[in-house]
């Protein structure tokens, strides 16, 4: 009897032990399967972005963006405390580049150049909008997106990515038509369970570019009606310019324009006598005989600084005139400025102006 009771007790303990291990395993499995999801999307999904209609500014330099979008991915994460097997808890956001080729510009990747058209002459740059970090665009590279999502409470958030289409060469101006299709992935975003070291178990979003819309160079929006205006300043006595910085002879003039709607008008003035001049004082020509004086051009009372002769957007000292639809002239004025002891004579300065339509 005692022997039988002892055997029964052993069997009961074995059963209790078995069920105890089963309970632990079930709980480990439940925690390990916590999934952080992209909002309203399935576990493994594909999504696309498009730049829409693209207008390329004239003379845009290689390496400059010709189109930009901000791409958003919303996510919802449940509670995820530390659990078997890694016992870390929470989630992390991982970014995987997917482009095939590096380019001459840092942070810019390119699809295989076998693709004709848009992808042969452009690259893509991705930037984390929350940290400002330019992400590695190339395939087989994983980067942590940002702060770890802790597992103590449910969390909802937004992944914000700036995606730029970068001009690589002037071949882009030759494209007359874009196909309506998409190419291999640009990048992949994964919502990773930190309890599991297995990328296949992470919720991932594959992001591709959908080619749509049109691509065309920006047309010249304005015609200059007086391309070489000559401005005559009144004679001024040297006594009015007896101190450095003194001004006199303020004279207004206009650059006349005929414009059609569709762009923003910018202009750069260049000192023809000293092309490297970036100040707001125009150098006199060599045949000027006056000494100690220069010329200053102003727009709406603000001195204009000189810059390189270039239509490139963002050119040094380029300034905004206005929308082409409402621009018919550029009102300016010019005056003498003393920059040293003044002696009488003739004063002549020559500046060029370069229009840019953006």
Automatic annotation (TrEMBL):
InterPro entries, alphabetized: Adhesion_dom_fimbrial, Adhesion_dom_fimbrial_sf, Adhesion_dom_sf, Bact_Fimbrial_Adh_Pro
GO CC field: pilus
Domain Fimbrial-type adhesion: from-to ranges: 211-358
UniProt KW keywords: Signal
Gene Ontology biological-process entries: cell adhesion involved in single-species biofilm formation
Keyword rRNA processing: no
Pfam families: Fimbrial
Protein name: Fimbrial protein
Provenance organism: Burkholderia pyrrocinia (Pseudomonas pyrrocinia)
């Amino acid at each position: 009897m005692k022997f039988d009771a002892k055997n029964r007790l052993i069997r009961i303990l074995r059963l209790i032990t078995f069920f105890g291990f089963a309970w632990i395993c079930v709980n480990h499995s439940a925690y390990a399967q916590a999934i952080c999801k992209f909002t309203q999307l399935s576990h493994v999904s594909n999504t696309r972005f498009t730049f829409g209609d693209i207008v390329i500014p004239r003379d845009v330099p290689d390496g400059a963006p010709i189109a930009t979008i901000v791409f958003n991915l919303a996510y919802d994460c449940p509670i995820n405390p530390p659990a078997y097997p890694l016992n870390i808890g929470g989630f992390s956001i991982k970014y995987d580049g997917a482009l095939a080729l590096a380019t001459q510009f840092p942070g810019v990747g390119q699809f295989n150049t076998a693709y004709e058209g848009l992808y042969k002459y452009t690259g893509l740059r991705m930037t984390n909008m929350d940290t400002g970090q330019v992400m590695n665009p190339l395939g087989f590279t994983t980067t942590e997106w940002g702060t770890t999502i802790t597992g103590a409470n449910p969390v909802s958030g937004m992944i914000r990515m700036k995606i730029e289409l970068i001009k690589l060469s002037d071949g882009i101006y030759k494209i007359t038509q874009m196909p309506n299709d998409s190419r291999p992935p640009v990048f992949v975003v994964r919502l990773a369970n930190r309890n599991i070291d297995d990328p296949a178990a992470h919720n991932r979003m594959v992001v591709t570019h959908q080619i749509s819309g049109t691509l065309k160079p920006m047309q010249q929006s304005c015609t200059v009606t007086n391309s070489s205006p000559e401005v005559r300043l009144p004679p001024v006595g040297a006594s009015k310019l007896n101190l450095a910085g003194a001004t006199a002879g303020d004279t207004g003039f206009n650059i006349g324009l005929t414009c059609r709607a569709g762009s923003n008008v910018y202009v750069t003035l260049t000192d023809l006598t000293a092309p490297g001049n970036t100040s707001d004082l125009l150098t006199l020509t060599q045949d000027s005989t006056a000494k100690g004086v220069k010329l200053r051009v102003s727009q709406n009372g603000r001195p204009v600084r000189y810059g390189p002769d270039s239509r490139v957007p963002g050119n040094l000292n380029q300034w905004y005139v206005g929308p082409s639809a409402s621009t018919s002239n550029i009102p300016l004025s010019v005056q003498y400025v003393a920059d040293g002891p003044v002696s009488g004579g003739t004063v002549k300065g020559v500046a060029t102006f370069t229009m840019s339509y953006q």
